[in-house]
Amino acid sequence: MTPQSTLIPAVSQRLNRFVQGQHSQAMELGSETELLLDAAAHAVEGGKRLRARFCATGWSAVVEGNGGPARELPSSLVDVAASLEIFHAAALVHDDIIDNSDTRRGRPAAHRALQETHGERGWVGDADQFGRSAAVLLGDLLLAWSDDLLEDGLDDVPVARAVRRQYAQMRRDVTIGQYLDVAEEAAHVTAPDDEHPERAIRIATFKSARYSVEQPLLIGASLAGASETQRDALSRFGLPVGLAFQLRDDVLGVFGDSVETGKPSGDDLREGKRTLLIAYTRQALPTGPRRAVDELLGDPSLDAGQIEALQNTIRSSGALNRVEADIARYAHEADRALSGAALGNTAVGELRDLARAAVTRTA
Amino acid sequence: MTPQSTLIPAVSQRLNRFVQGQHSQAMELGSETELLLDAAAHAVEGGKRLRARFCATGWSAVVEGNGGPARELPSSLVDVAASLEIFHAAALVHDDIIDNSDTRRGRPAAHRALQETHGERGWVGDADQFGRSAAVLLGDLLLAWSDDLLEDGLDDVPVARAVRRQYAQMRRDVTIGQYLDVAEEAAHVTAPDDEHPERAIRIATFKSARYSVEQPLLIGASLAGASETQRDALSRFGLPVGLAFQLRDDVLGVFGDSVETGKPSGDDLREGKRTLLIAYTRQALPTGPRRAVDELLGDPSLDAGQIEALQNTIRSSGALNRVEADIARYAHEADRALSGAALGNTAVGELRDLARAAVTRTA
Lengths: 363, 363
Fold this sequence. Notes:
Oligomer: homodimer
CATH class of chain A: Mainly Alpha
Distance between the termini of chain A: 27 Å
Helix content of chain A: over 70%
Largest interface: A-B, 63 and 62 residues
Radius of gyration of chain A: 21 Å
Number of helices of chain A: 16
Strand content of chain A: under 5%
CATH architecture of chain A: Orthogonal Bundle
Strand order of the largest sheet of chain A: 1-2
Largest sheet of chain A: 2 strands, antiparallel
């Protein structure tokens, strides 16, 4: 049994234990806290645990690479990996408010679920506003929890400072990256069309590639006391994997099957996300059709026929093929970064598996 | 010169230096980050620095009480005090979204300022939604920063763990307290009228009394290595001061002068805040007038005449006098808690001054 196979159950157990502890503490503030605490428990359930996986594999790649036996995952690693998952749950709760998303993983988004409870309980005032307000605070609570769990993990760990620094960098990068993403939906009109691809890649780098792959790897690696060379190899692997991961996400956001993704088909088109796929499409189109695309993008009321028309335009413009070629190129680049690195062989195999799963996924 | 008089300039300097450092780092992510970083710099400016003051005075009360010379504020204390101010800035940014507040400290609230920029720059899409989305992320960034600055302060501090634990408690209490406040605006109809005062006090305890006074004191005290007896005395002082502080806030939210408070007069009435003042008013009124109050409360379009009518009702019901009597009682209770405590004399004098300022303020 590799340590990786024990990770997901260990992280889930740790999350359950942590959330239960928080639940008991919160009950001292009154039974009215229950709804918030239940929403928090709900928010940390499920998901692919991608960030926990990359974190744990970053850790074992270094431990193994240094000749150590990465047979058992230390509790500090499980805490830190679980903390990344709570942080991600917080980011998703706020992200769904920002994107006005109704669903997440096939279930109502947190703010919608809170809104529904407002109605069911016969509360007064604007249910929609209550849902959003409570979800802002839910995200804040999860952010606080992620830090508490991180510190649980770093208690008495000699390399705590290095891990904290990496974690802080991750938090800033993703928050600013998310802001750039939101701003681009509004500000893209002020940038020349030929700069759009570069801008889309920069946003994908911070909000996703670094956040979802490179930094979890480096956080795990820091906990294992990685050398500069080891960190560098993991970065050169993680960044292109993360970009390929985000480009795959962009493709799924337009062409994904709603049954598999748990989100309505063509969701990114209704939201008006300015992805590389859109930048390539717009580059390929003459003025008239480009304007037609611009008018549809970001309209939350697009119907199935309009979504299909946009999908056809994106496909026939060649943009989908270009993005698929980019994904393949990034995946290849990532693969090469691992050759000859001072990282453990078993872990390198696992990194390749994780990369493949992240890049070829359908959900 | 007491150490306290050097605190505010030291905290402001530290905040400026920190924000400038973050600004330079963020520029590497692209010049489009400037708007967010400027909004962050703006959010940490000004304010009464109440939490920093209580934190520093909690620290010197213990240092002096243990016979030490609290002549100079250590840089760790300045970092931690500044971190509390960044945390508070984050809470205010999110709070203003939740309360739909247009102004803060006499200037546009963060989400409104961001919304205005959207318009000025000729960006596309919904300016209001952009303002709120960007402000959710602005609050998240400030939350991350508050933790970074806390950790700067705790680097190499032997009592770091105790300080972190206290800080974590503060974050959870205020976030859950804020949620209870939001939920009460919607859920109060499901609770019997005679429970409303107790519920209002419980919310005030967590969202404000602990957060704004007791926990800053205990965070400072932990940093000074306080004994249980010292912590206990500071708690017995801080909690009633904090409650009096919040009740004063409730009174100002209904009767305050908009020129002094920087908020529209009667703002709490338009928001429908379920304060102790309202609970007492409703208790005192017969059914008919009570229903009339319920119908007006929480209506964002209340005009000056309606606000004045509500103010008169609250005053003539005796609720204002009851709340003023509670404030006086809490202030007295706080005063007694300091008698005979193992805390430094100079600091105790400063605590009394701070308490007086918090309770008698007009803004």
